[in-house]
Structures are given as structure tokens and as C-alpha cells.
Give the backbone structure.
Amino acid sequence: MLLKLAWLNIWRNKRRTFITATSVFFAVVLAIVFRSLTDGIYDNMIHNMVSYSSGYLQVHQKGYWDEQSIDNTFEEDEQLYQELFENPNVIHLMPRLQTFALASYTNRTKGVLVLGIDPVKEKAVNNLHKKIIDGHYIETVNDDAVVLGEGLASQLKLKVNDTLVLLGQGYHASSAAAKYRMKGIIKLGAIELNNNVVYMPLQQAQYMHGAENRLSSMSVMLNNTTDLDKLKQSLLESINPNKYEVMTWKEMMPEMDQFIEADSTGHYIIIGILYFIISFGLFGTLLMMIFERKHELGILIAIGMKKHLLGLILLLESIMISLIGCLTGVIVGILVIKWFTRYPIHLTGELKEVYEDWGIESIIYFSSNEKIFITQTLIVLILSTLLALYPGYKVLKLKPIEAINS
């Protein structure tokens, strides 16, 4: 009976119900869109960083991370690929052979990072071919050519089709020396990488270092990255933990993780201010509701209506109005996020250049993680419910004669 009475009451004054529900509606929509935007930016930033380097997870030989030597590489194994792909969250595996060498051209020499990669797999994940600013991208694993970072090519005064000499240490202290045609120049946003990297087809890197069929690491790209520690554990259970080690990008790049944590604190403050403003808006509409119904409430108490039952009805009314606002807010929020997920915002002008200089796509993506919709809706609903306690409190303190005469 109380639920039915509360439902009928909220439609007695449609204007008041509409104003209150609209306040909740905009609160939910704003909270969902803001959180989706910030999570989307972070997810895109992380994807851009890990695709070039570690992957969301990295598999390497046990002990390699403490001593990153070519002697601590492992033999490429088809069974390892199969075991990793058994996990439904694994969508890409990128084998790499990472070493260091001296790069020389004419009278210029510089220490460089040599990355032996599978060009096809790297192309599918991080679009390296689209970042070539001069020349061409390496196409196959046995292509007898290299691609240099723009900064490194500038320091060595190299141009496309020039010959680069590399000298380093191979597997088990063997000599590693070779010369390669520079096929292209690539511009990467990560300044350190851009100034030091030499991309080389995987088979050529293995041959140069006398490390045929060996890898320094296997970068793992995932479909769902919400619980990396759990995914890491599931991969460890599917491979030989005595031979291989699995690390998350947070363990390998703690500085980046700390930067995101610190930056997200600022966003929490902003969304906290947003909730504060939302709360005042909701509180104002509830005060208006009490003021408008003061005479009515006084009469109900005077004819024998129990104050605690009347307070409960008002609470139920507020919760129902909040639910209407939350439901419509979630529906509109889903439509807005779906639109921006399908048609992300493309930055232009100086802002585009800033993003690209830092190796981040000049596109603002929105996150469609279902937790965003659930969490933000629950927060607004809880705020609405807590604020709805105030009308009940006012009813308990209400004096019928004063209310009737007001």
C-alpha cells in the first residue's frame, strides 16, 4: 500500500517530479560521460606505450629481467604459442629479440637498442608502418634491411638506402657484426626510443647474434585488461613456471603506473566536485518539494497520519523519482558512449601535434566498460537516497498547526 501510495503521489505534481528526476538524470549522464572519457584516455595511453615495449604482459626466461643479456634468451617454441593462446583474453603475441650494439655510419658512432621484430605482427598491433616518415617499412621477418628512429637517423646523418654498420656481442660471447641497408625512418612519440631504436626483422637479428630461433621476450596483448594480476596468474598456470617468468607492464614500467595514479587523483577531485554540485541540485529540489507540500503534510498529520509512515512515504517517493532519473540517465549515457565509441573525437591543429609528439594517437576514445555505468549510477542513487532522508526528518519535526497556517 505504501509503495502504491508513493507511486501515485509522485504523479500528482508532474512538474515537481520532472524537475527532480531531471536533476538525477543529468547527474548520472555527466558522471558516466566524464568517467568514460578519463578511463578511455588512460586506456589509450597505456595501449600506445605497452604496444611499443613490454605488452600488457611479458613472457621471458626466468632471470632475464634481473640480467637482460642475450645469454638469458629462450628458444622459440610453438607449444608456448599454443599454451598462451589457450587463454581467451590473449589476442596477439609479439616475439622480440632485444639487444644493444654500436651503430656506425662514416665517422659517427652511437650505442643503440636493436629490436628484432616480426614486422607483420607489430604492424597489426601498433601500426608501425603508418609512422614511417621516409622510405618504407620492413615487410617480412627475413627482409635484409632496418628501420631507424627519426632521432637516431638525424644524429648519425643517415638517409634512406644508406648502409648502417652494427657491432655488438652475440649469443654466448660470439661476435655480432653486420651491415644493413636503411629502408626507412620512423617517428615515434617516445623520445628515448625515437633517439635510440633500430628495428630489424627477427630472423636477421637472430642470425646476426648467432641466436637462431631464440627470443628475449614475448609481448602479450590482451582483450580485457581489468585484472592483470589474475591474468598473469592464469598464464603462469598454463606454461612452465620453472622456465618462464610473466610480468605485468606495471611491474616493468612502475614510473608510468605512478604517473597515471597521480594524474587520476586530480580527476577524482574533479568528479568529487561534480558530485558535490549534483548533491546541492538534488537537495534544492527536495527542499522545494517539502516547501510546496508543507500545508498538505500538516493536514495529513492533523487527521491522524502517523509521522513515521508519512516520512517513509516521502522517502519512497524520493527513491522512485531517483530511480526514474537513474534509469533514463543510464540509457542516454549508454547511447552517448556508444556514439563516441563508434565515432571517436579526432583532434586537430596544435593539440594533434602535441599528442603525436608524445607517441599517443590524436584521437580521444571513450571507455565502454560496464563498471563505469554501474558504479556511477550507484553513487548517484546512494546520494539521492541519503538526501531523501531530509524530508523524512522534516516531517518528524513538523508541527501540524504551523504547517496548516503556513
Observations:
- Residues 14-52 form the longest helix (39 residues).
- The CA atoms of residues 117 and 349 lie 33 Å apart.
- The longest strand covers residues 90-105.
